Amino acid sequence: MRIYLGVFVLVFVSGDDTTILGVLEDSVLMPCTCLELDEEFKFKWQMEEPNPITIYKHNKTLSNRFTDRVEIFLTENNDNCSILLTNITAEDQGRYKCSFRSGDTYQYSNLSLNVSASFSLCQTKSSLSGGGVKVFQCNVAGVPSRKHNICMVSDFFYPNMGGVESHIYQLSQCLIERGHKVVIVTHAYGRRKGVRHLTNGLKVYYLPLQVMYNQSTSTTVYHSLPLMRCVFVRERITVVHAHSSFSAMGHDALFHAKTMGLNTVFTDHSLFGFADVSSVLTNKLLTVSLCDTNHTVCVSYTSKENTVLRAALNPEIVSVIPNAVDPTDFTPDPSQRPDDKITIVVVSRLVYRKGIDLLGGIIPELCLKHPDLHFLIGGEGPKRLVLEEVREKYQLHDRVRLLGALEHNDVRGVLVQGHIFLNTSLTEAFCMAILEGASCGLQVVSTRVGGIPEVLPEDLITMCEPTVRALCAGLETVIARQRSGTVASPASIHARVRNLYTWRNVAERTEKVYDRVASEEVLPLDRRLRRLRSHCGPVAGSIFAFMAVLDFLFLLILQWWAPDEVMDVAVDATGPRGLWRREPRGEAGARSEGATKRAAEAETWTL
């Protein structure tokens, strides 16, 4: 088996990209050796990413953008098809292909050009109105901002509701605002299939994949490759960003992206244990997925420690970028609060992990002590039965309201009716719910678990151990402060929270991760197989190395059946050349923009 793998690697891996570095406004040699070139000296240079442009073909520069910037070295006496690219711009960064005819076959080589800016000092002289010269010192520094084609992948996205779904949507919108192209891939939800466009032209692919459990798709790895390859190629994706350890589709995307030579990022939103069967299996899958992933993002430092231990990662390739909240969506409105009672609000999925059993013990104890205390509970889940039994047993129908599942735009209307926000989670990497409650001006009481102590300043949250007695004591303290009027006003709490976490800041930090990843090497297949075997153990590593070989073979079959070159390029709704927000020029421009939007909205994908 080892001999066959070695032969396979020798035959098929020789075409991996070479990465070269160029400096802004300087020149760079882009090498290509064309052995046994045909007698007509026909060869071609093409920029493939982020958008395909033919630079040079058969002794002629074809692109106006590269006119007078390309120098050729080929003569009858050499086999040098290299080109010298002069006056480099930030837009020149990308993937290039050199192709030529040798006998009856076409040969090609790929390379990636990374562009950076030099650091220097300059002096600019400016004449003064009164005569003389003033010298200004300026810095020419930094790296030109590279625009990425990003594919967010997860089983969890709208219309499903939750923290992961909100994170993906808000981050995507802010990345679009910063000039990047973003598409989202998830599985179909009921009748929601195919391609949909959301705000600002955000494109979502709802793939027809079977859901296995709790909105996570079943996986055989290979069945999703044709669909994902279709998306990655048509959208000219450069970075694949998967979300959530629970998402089988996210793990599949990371696996296929590495097979296709794409850079990858993974964001972990959850904490896991190490002892139960479910955690052991998930942690092993995470180890395989992340062993050759370029970078990992966690939402808290506690989550980072947990992920590093679970997946045996180098902490240097794991960053902490917290979640955020849109402060304009969660503003306080004290007029909605009743003056004759105190309301405790709970907005959560009603599942064991959210501590609903603790809530079932808190409700009767506090309602017995405080006749004016009411509970307002939003959310749905299997533990709803626990709360209904408590309400029935203690006859609290007029003091405990169960609102059921809430739409995202209804959450703020529920929060502003309360005085105290209660979170009873048993495990949490980063609790967005307490951030939303604080943004609406509520006093926050929460269990001290996971990454929750990192979220809010100590004077804005009351932390308790995850027991009924401790939570009741913490709530009693906050209720007493509420009655005495010694709590901060909702407006002052909102003013402090609104600047703690913003999605624009999250997008800016994530963009730096993409920039770092874009300059990293994608492991060729032979090194990827060695990494799997060394990182995942001799048994699991060998199994997944064999699966990686099969995935690569399947990719070769798909590329033979439908070559990348003949696949239609999708219309860019977002990104540097996105048409969604382009300003129309006159009546003709308005008609053109309308036609573009209608074409984008009608776009479908097929294999």
From TrEMBL:
One of its GO terms (biological process) is GPI anchor biosynthetic process. InterPro entries: Glyco_trans_1 (IPR001296), Ig-like_dom (IPR007110), Ig-like_dom_sf (IPR036179), Ig-like_fold (IPR013783), Ig_V-set (IPR013106), PIG-A/GPI3 (IPR039507), PIGA_GPI_anchor_biosynthesis (IPR013234). It is found in: Endoplasmic reticulum membrane. The keyword Lipid metabolism applies. GO terms for molecular function: phosphatidylinositol N-acetylglucosaminyltransferase activity. Residues 581-607 are annotated as: Disordered. It is a single-pass membrane protein. Belongs to the glycosyltransferase group 1 family. Glycosyltransferase 4 subfamily. PANTHER family: N-ACETYLGLUCOSAMINYL-PHOSPHATIDYLINOSITOL BIOSYNTHETIC PROTEIN (PTHR45871), PHOSPHATIDYLINOSITOL N-ACETYLGLUCOSAMINYLTRANSFERASE SUBUNIT A (PTHR45871:SF1). Catalytic subunit of the glycosylphosphatidylinositol-N-acetylglucosaminyltransferase (GPI-GnT) complex that catalyzes the transfer of N-acetylglucosamine from UDP-N-acetylglucosamine to phosphatidylinositol and participates in the first step of GPI biosynthesis. This is Phosphatidylinositol N-acetylglucosaminyltransferase subunit A. It comes from Liparis tanakae.
